[in-house]
Design brief:
CATH architecture of chain B: Orthogonal Bundle
Structural class of chain A: alpha/beta
Radius of gyration of chain B: 20 Å
Radius of gyration of chain A: 17 Å
Oligomer: heterodimer
Largest interface: A-B, 32 and 23 residues
CATH topology of one domain in chain A: Rossmann fold
Number of helices of chain B: 11
Number of strands of chain A: 10
Strand content of chain A: 25-35%
Strand order of the largest sheet of chain B: 1-4
Number of domains of chain B: 1
Order of helices and strands of chain B: HHHHEEEHHHHEHHH
Helix content of chain B: 55-70%
Structural class of chain B: mainly alpha
Number of helices of chain A: 10
CATH topology of chain B: ABC transporter involved in vitamin B12 uptake, BtuC
CATH class of chain B: Mainly Alpha
Chain lengths: 238, 310
């Protein structure tokens, strides 16, 4: 069986500066794959390229058997690739319900959309309580929940989460990580970018360590969690 | 003060006209943060499109029939030019420094004026436009409403209401709000933001065509330069009301229209200010108002400063 997402020798440049310098990895259906690494390693750039917001300067992306090159960003979500961006990027002046509805923008099954909105409220009860509130009034953690709920509304084959725990309190971070575990248990395929390496590695089937635009190290999450160089560099151990 | 109701009515009608044109500035700014300085010319082209439609009609057609067709003709012309400008002049500069599209807009404004001046038959002089004839409506002893003013006072709120409903309720309107708030994320939702941007230009142009017909049937003439000062006034109205906010455009238009009409009537009655009143000074007072409002509320009357939490 071929992988759901296949990235081969991907290169992305901002002008003359190459931010991603030929990386290859794949995501199998049902897996949680994580990209970890410091700021500027190229993780976010990779996700933004996968969802079509940035154009690659080289390499190949194959999703669900189809090449993604040249597909505009607004068509990629219809192929089953959803992206919860770094910094949440909820629509601040729309309500929570409206944000969720926008996640299902391309769907036409009204009853199904209603059901999935309800599912998002079940997953994150606080969103249900505040459904009529402008999303900009939510706390950072609540906005993260909304961003994840919104990404799920497109019924994606692959959910890409960029820094879901960034800037959150430890309690909120734990809640978000528990949700990812829950989504994984339900069979959602996830590509997770995280700076919180400990949390990401402990739930990932497969992990890749990125450094200045390249993949330095790959392996099962549990294995990297115990790798000495990873522990030193990313888990803050001496 | 006996003529106050009349001055208010005049100001409202003028303000409604400004508001209709201001929608075009505010919609485009709200979505692509571009001040489309060629929008005054889009308004003017709407007028010439409407005139063309009128000329094509059999002579003797009643205005009641002609006006809707003139609005359609004007809108076809203005929407075609505005969307072509978006596609060929502004879109290639979407990621350029913001000064580039701004200068393009100013250049485009001159080009469009000169094209109409040079190519439209007899457009080097003002061309006469079918005028709404007939007696004014008497509302009170001291308040008469000219038919052309009544026309714009009915049309402008109706257009605003339709636009408000469209933006708030329709799927495209929702997509428009999303694109205005966060274009990249809107793309991630599957929204074709290029299409939404074209739609914003088109709606603004259609409103400008409605305004051009309202202007023409009031003045009885149109000319290739009319978009300049009216465009500037409408832009002022959009900023006054809070640029990016569609209701702000209307509110700003009305405030500006009232300020002009009241300044014409009453400034010269203030002791020591006789020299500064009358029609010649109306524009000055309009811009003084703009400056004062922007000093107190830089975001405009209805503009909001939303702090998006990081």
């Amino acid at each position: 069986m071929t992988a759901l997402l296949e990235v081969e020798d991907l290169r992305v440049a901002y002008g003359k500066i190459e931010a991603v310098k030929g990386i290859s990895f794949s995501v199998e259906a049902g897996q949680v794959v994580t990209l970890i690494g410091t700021n500027g390693a190229g993780k976010t750039t990779t996700l933004r390229t996968l969802s079509g917001l940035l154009k690659p300067s080289g390499g190949r992306i194959t999703f669900d058997g189809k090449p993604l090159s040249g597909v505009p960003a607004h068509k990629i979500v219809s192929l089953g690739l959803a992206h919860s961006p770094e910094g949440r990027h909820i629509f601040p002046r729309l309500t929570i319900t409206e944000n969720l509805q926008l996640g299902a923008f391309l769907r036409t099954d009204k009853a199904g959309i209603e059901k999935d909105i309800q599912r998002a409220y079940d997953l994150f009860p606080i969103l249900g309580e505040r459904r009529k509130q402008a999303a900009g009034t939510l706390s950072g953690g609540e906005q993260q929940m909304l961003a994840m709920g919104r990404a799920l509304m497109s019924q994606p084959k692959l959910l890409m989460l960029d820094e879901p725990s960034m800037g959150l309190s430890p309690i909120m971070m734990q809640k978000i990580m528990e949700t990812i575990v829950e989504l994984k248990a339900q069979g959602t395929t996830i590509l997770l970018v995280e700076q919180n390496a400990q949390a990401a590695l402990s739930l990932a089937d497969q992990a890749h360590v990125m450094e200045v635009g390249t993949i330095k190290l790959s392996g099962p999450g549990s294995e990297l969690l115990h790798d000495e160089s990873v522990r030193k560099t990313y888990l803050g151990e001496d | 003060m006996h003529e106050l109701p009349q001055q208010l009515a005049n100001g409202l009608a003028l303000g409604a006209l400004y508001g209709l044109i201001a929608i075009g500035y505010t919609m485009v700014y709200g979505i692509v943060q571009l001040i489309n300085f060629a929008h005054g010319e889009i308004f003017m082209i709407g007028g010439f499109g409407a005139l063309t439609a009128y000329i094509a009609l059999p002579s003797g057609t009643s205005l009641l029939v002609a006006i809707p067709l003139m609005i359609v003709g004007g809108a076809i012309a203005s929407v075609a030019v505005a969307t072509a400008a978006e596609r060929f002049a502004y879109r290639p500069l979407r990621n350029a420094p913001r000064l580039a599209p701004l200068i393009t807009a100013i250049g485009l404004s001159i080009v469009l004026q000169q094209l109409v001046w040079g190519l439209y038959p007899d457009a080097k002089k003002p061309r006469s436009f079918p005028e709404i004839q007939g007696e004014s409506f008497k509302i009170f002893d001291n308040l008469y409403l000219q038919r052309a003013d009544a026309f714009v006072l009915v049309l402008a709120p109706a257009c605003m209401l339709a636009l408000g409903l469209f933006v708030a309720k329709s799927r495209s309107g929702r997509a428009m709000q999303a694109t205005a708030q966060d274009p990249d994320t809107a793309k991630l939702m599957g929204i074709n933001t290029d299409r939404i941007i074209v739609m914003a230009f088109a709606i603004g142009a259609a409103f400008a065509a409605v305004a051009a017909v309202a202007y023409g049937v009031d003045k009885g003439q149109i000319n290739f330069e009319m978009g300049f000062i009216l465009g500037l006034k409408a832009f002022t109205a959009a900023v006054l009301g809070g640029i990016g906010n569609i209701y702000g455009a209307m509110v700003g238009g009305v405030v500006l229209g009232l300020a002009e009409s009241l300044s014409i009537a009453y400034i010269e009655e203030i002791p020591g200010m006789q020299q500064l009143g009358g029609g010649a000074w109306a524009n000055v007072w309009a811009f003084v108002l703009l400056i004062v409002v922007l000093l107190v509320r830089p975001q405009g009357l209805l503009g909001e400063r939303v702090a998006d939490r990081a």
